[in-house]
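During the reporting period the student researcher (J.K.) took over the structure-prediction task from the postdoctoral fellow and processed the backlog of single-chain submissions. One of the processed entries is reproduced below for the supervisory committee.
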Amino acid sequence: PLGLRVNTRLLKSTGFDPTRSDGAPSFEQDLNWTREGVKILGVAVGGTLEHSAGTASFVKAYIIREIEKKMRILPLLKEINSRCALIILRFAINARPNFLLRSTPPSITGDSMKVFDKGVDDAIAELCQWDGPLPEWSRTLRGLPAGLQIPRLDDVRESAYISSWTQAAWHIADKHNWLWKMCLDARIFDEESELCERFVEGFNGFSLR
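J.K. obtained the following C-alpha cells:
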C-alpha cells in the first residue's frame, strides 16, 4: 500500500539461516564472497591482519571503493547555496564514512581518510571562494566546536574504532567468554596503535565469569 519494494537479494541482517537445526551457515547464493574475504552488513570481513596480507588488501580495496563513492557528490556542492552546502557537508557527507571508521581497523582506513579529508578541504575552499588549498590553520579549525564542526576523519579514526569496540566489549566479555577470549587470541586489534594497546591491556584484566 505504501509503494515500497524490498530488495530481497541484499544480505542486510544475517548471513545464517536461524531455522536450521544443525546451526550450519546457509549463505544466500548471491552473497559476494571470495577466499580473501566477504562483505556483510556493509563491512569487509576476512582473516586476521597478522596472518593474511591478502585479507588486508581485500578490506583496503573495499574501503577505497567506498570512499570514492562517497566523494562523488563533493563537486556538486558548488551548485547550491554555500550555507546549505556547508550544512549538508557537515551533517551528511562528512558523516557517511563513520560506519567504516567504527568497523575497520584504523591501520587500514588511514590512507583513504586522508584522501577524503583532502576532498572535503577542497570543497570548503571552493564554497568559501578561497583561491588555492586551505591554509593549515583553516584545516585544523574546521573540526573544532568554534569552527565549522566538520571533523577530519583521519584524526578520529582510532577513537571511532575503539569506541565502537568498547560499546560491545563489556557485553561480549561478560556474556560470551569464549568469543572474547577468541578475539584476544586472534589479536584482531590494531597492534600498531598505542590507543588499541591500552584498550586490550585494560580488558585483559576484566574479570571473566
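The committee noted the following: The CA atoms of residues 105 and 190 lie 6 Å apart.
J.K. will present the remaining backlog at the next meeting.
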